[in-house]
Amino acid sequence: MAFKREIQGVVVKIAGEKTASILVERKVVHPRYRKIVKRFKKYLIHDERNEVKVGDTVIAVECRPLSKRKSFRLKSVLATGVE
C-alpha cells in the first residue's frame, strides 16, 4: 500500500457542498539567507458529513482524485475555531 500524505491546516472557507478549503503553513529555510520563512498553500478537502466550520484546525489524508482540484479527505478535526 502506498504512503498517504497527511496535511494539517485551518479551514478558511466552506467551498460548496461537502467541500472545505484549508490553508496549510510550512516552514522552510531560505536557500540564500538561511532564515526560516513561512510558505502557505490552499487545498480543497472532501468533508462527507459537512462537520467542519471556518476556523477549525483539521487533518486531511491523501486519496484518489475526487475532482479537478480535490485529492484529500477529512481525517479528523483537531480543534474548533472561533468565528
Automatic annotation (TrEMBL):
GO molecular function, a single term: structural constituent of ribosome
Keywords: Ribonucleoprotein, Ribosomal protein, RNA-binding, rRNA-binding
InterPro entries registered for this protein in UniProt: NA-bd_OB-fold, Ribosomal_uS17, Ribosomal_uS17_bact/chlr, Ribosomal_uS17_CS
Cellular component GO terms held in the UniProt record: cytosolic small ribosomal subunit
Pfam families on file: Ribosomal_S17
Top-level lineage group: Bacteria
A single BP term in Gene Ontology: translation
Binding partners and assembly: Part of the 30S ribosomal subunit.
NCBIfam families (UniProt xref): PRK05610.1, uS17_bact
Record-stated family: Belongs to the universal ribosomal protein uS17 family.
Function: One of the primary rRNA binding proteins, it binds specifically to the 5'-end of 16S ribosomal RNA.
Record-linked PANTHER family: 40S RIBOSOMAL PROTEIN S11 FAMILY MEMBER, SMALL RIBOSOMAL SUBUNIT PROTEIN US17M
Name of protein: Small ribosomal subunit protein uS17
Lineage: Bacteria, Pseudomonadati, Campylobacterota, Epsilonproteobacteria, Campylobacterales
Encoding gene per record: rpsQ
